[in-house]
Amino acid sequence: MRPHVELIQENDYVWHGAELVGGEGRASERRLSVDEEDGSCSLRVDFHTDWGRGPGIHHANTEYHVLEGSMTYNGKEIGKGGYVYAPKGVPTEAITFSEGTRLLHYREYGDAGFDAVESTRATRWKGAREDVIVIDTEAMTWDAVPNPGPMPGLFIKYLHVDPETGFYTRLVHAQEGWTDHRLAHHPCYEEAYTVQGHMEYNFGTLDLGTYFFRPARVKHGHFTSLEGGATWLLRSDGELFNWYTQSEWVRWGGEAINYGPGEGRMRWSTSSHDLGAGAPGRSDRDLADLRASVRYQREQGEIDEEYVQHGTGTDKSLLAIAKAVDAARLQGGHGDDDHEHEHAPVNADWGADPRSLEHPDERTDDLAYVWGAGRNWRKGDPIPAPILSSRPVRSRSAGRWNGDGM
Hints:
Jelly Rolls, 3 helices, 10-stranded antiparallel β-sheet, 406 residues, 9% helix, mainly beta, RmlC_Cupin_sf, single chain, 7-stranded antiparallel β-sheet, DUF4437 domain-containing protein
């Protein structure tokens, strides 16, 4: 399982010698995210010389996407936007990259291993079922996303889709002014590298060279696309369903024992509302775009809530706590704690029990040790509750969490 990375500017990563087994030439890599359990990783690679290797079989589902420069696969040269998908266990042709080429390189469900073969007539590994894909993405046209959120203006180029697992890689462009005022979570992981433009959201500013890896079920959102729009190479390990929530809040706290002024215990508490109040907040343009998104949704006949910036208005966590206190009093509680008998547990109505929204086998399968693991989901299945990742790995220069939602 990879850690939650959000939001990192690639310049905050150190360079390593590129792990490109069996090739000739020099290259360096920045390790955007790595799964230490199975070797999966997302990398930014720079080639300092011409580099190449002959036919062979990758130990992982492998992808190359050229940001600058050129690559040649099976004798065909492709410049910026060139894309190759090489499935695990499938013989591939020779590949080369020219000096100065910059690319995104992904390995999924395996490590950097590479077995040289005489030709692509070599035997596939048992179970290998996909074929190599070679695309000049610059020559592709943008298609409108079927479900672009609450507003039109989202476009896509499909690069690779696994028909069995739903895993897919795509380029996505949000035109200037595209906005989504809701927070979402998904049944799959989602990662993206920004190749163009600017977008604001609750984890920071998506601009050129920024990257995130978000495990399944982590909430995110309140997007506003700025001047020139924004474009990403985006990957998910399953079909991406959007489950939306609004008016989010969280409160946490405790009894401090050995810190704070004076002696004895000290109660402390904070909430997402408090974080929003202390953050820079949205610009006037962002707020206008977010409210326009609500209006558009309502014009389509959809039920929606007003957008309220975190840190303003009533703190909903305090309202919930007040309701719980009322419930306790109705169940026989009282304000005098100078006695020895115990109160019965408070049966406050907090809505659905999150456990009731999970798949029944989620707590018993081999991924039960991590909430953020994705699961195959089909319409009609229970929709699992979101999870919080309030301190993801993030960038010193670009990553931030402004409290605008959770």
